[in-house]
Structures are given as structure tokens and as C-alpha cells.
Amino acid sequence: MNAYEEYMREISQPMRDELTNAGFEELQTPEEVNEFMATNQESALIVINSVCGCAAGLARPAAIESLKNDKKPAKIVTVFAGQDREATAQMRDYFEGIEPSSPSMAIIDGGELKHFIPREQIEGYEPEDIVEQLTTAYQKYC
């Protein structure tokens, strides 16, 4: 690992911790992504994490807040765009027809994509708006 990669790992660790401390399972390799997608039979929220400001101020807090709800996904997982590139690319392969964006969030049921929130529906919105998008999708798909 070169100095740049080491630096980026170090500064992104608190961004990883924010989600894992809230109970998200981090998928860091393509194999972990494939294993999760192949074996998951329940509803799940997938957060594609990022180092950008809209991930810090909007996506991560909204994802965590949305889980303080009776109706929520059975599983919560995350991949980190720009950090775990191969795992993120592998996860995006499951979102057929969806342009890559980070941060973003997906709700799946089993292996099937049910709802997707791209960066365009995160950046420029209030955290409450994103929580509402998620909880509305939870009502429908979880």
C-alpha cells in the first residue's frame, strides 16, 4: 500500500465506523458482496458510502436515522466507493440499469433491487427528506 492509499484508509476509517457502529455490516471484497447477495433472502438496505460531504452530512446520518423505525430492513450492509473499489463495482453489478453514484442507497428484497436513491436524490436535500424517502420505501418493501 502506498502512502496515498494509507492516508485515505486512515481518514476514511471514521466514515466507515459511523455505519458499522450503527450495526451495518461492511462488505470489503467482491467475494463478500457475492456471498451476501447469493444468500440473503430478506429485505436489506445497502449504503454505498463515500468520503464526500453529502455522504457525511446527509447520506450516513439519514440512513442511520431511518432505522429508528418499526418497519425497516432485516439486514443493513455497506460498501465504500473509492476505498473498496472491487467490492463496490461488484455490488453495482447487481443494480442493473442504474448509473453508478456515490453516495447512494438501495433497498433489495432477496437479491432483487426494489428501490434506489442516487446521489442526485441525496445532495441538496435535507436529511429529513432522505429519511422520508427511505421510510416510505421500507413501508412498501420491508
Describe the structure.
Helices cover 46% and strands 19% of the residues. The chain has helices spanning 3-20, 30-39, 53-66, 85-93, 127-141, and strands spanning 25-26, 43-49, 75-80, 104-109, 112-117. The protein has one domain (28-73, 88-141): Glutaredoxin (3-Layer(aba) Sandwich). Helix 2 packs parallel to helix 4. With 142 residues, it is an alpha/beta fold. It is globular and about 45 Å long. Helix 3 (53-66) links the parallel strand 2 (43-49) and strand 3. The mean pLDDT is 95.
Biggest sheet, spatial arrangement of strands: 1-3-2-4-5
Give the tally of structural domains.
1
Percent range for helical residues?
Answer: 40-55%
Count of DSSP H/I helices: 5
User: What is the CATH topology assignment?
Assistant: Glutaredoxin
Mean pLDDT: 95
Organism: Gracilibacillus kekensis
InterPro entries: BrxB/BrxA (IPR009474)
Protein name: Putative bacilliredoxin, YphP/YqiW family
Family: Belongs to the bacilliredoxin family.
Defining traits:
BrxB/BrxA, alpha/beta, 142 residues
Topology of helices and strands:
Layout: H1 3-20, E1 25-26, H2 30-39, E2 43-49, H3 53-66, E3 75-80, H4 85-93, E4 104-109, E5 112-117, H5 127-141
Parallel strand pairs: 1-3, 2-3
Antiparallel strand pairs: 2-4, 4-5
Helix pairs in contact: 2-4, 3-5
Summarize the structure.
By secondary structure, the chain is of the alpha/beta class.
